[in-house]
Amino acid sequence: MGGAHGEGSEEDIAGKRAGTRRIPGHPYPEPEATRVRTAKGRRPCFFDDPNIDKLLAMIMALAGEVSVIRERVDTHERLARESTWATHEAIEDYEPDEVAEAFRAQWRRDYIARVLRIVQVELDHIASGETHEDYDKIVEDVSK
User: Fold this and answer.
1) How many domains does the chain have?
2) 9-34 mean pLDDT
3) What residue numbers bound the domain in which 27 lies?
């Protein structure tokens, strides 16, 4: 297996050069973990409390991951409909047709709208000139 100096196979060496590693029984090399690059300088703050900005960033990152998982599930379903085994290779090589791409694009738009619904509601209130005081007054009037 190894070379004269125990370096491993040529494939292993090539993988190390490319920043990947082989996992036994796995059809594709797994990328090695790399340091996450971050922008220099201060992060922009949109809210009075910077913790809310951090929370929003985490929620949006998770929403992105859910979107990726949803597309992979869609790929599984479409491969099953074609009676194709959902192997790792088949999933990675799948190219959605125009109908599938349109379906996915619509799903993403709807999903983002659901995730950001509360933000949109706030923006609508601001645009209409409504204030929290107006809302509080309505609640007070109704509760009499």
Assistant:
1) 2
2) 61
3) 1-37
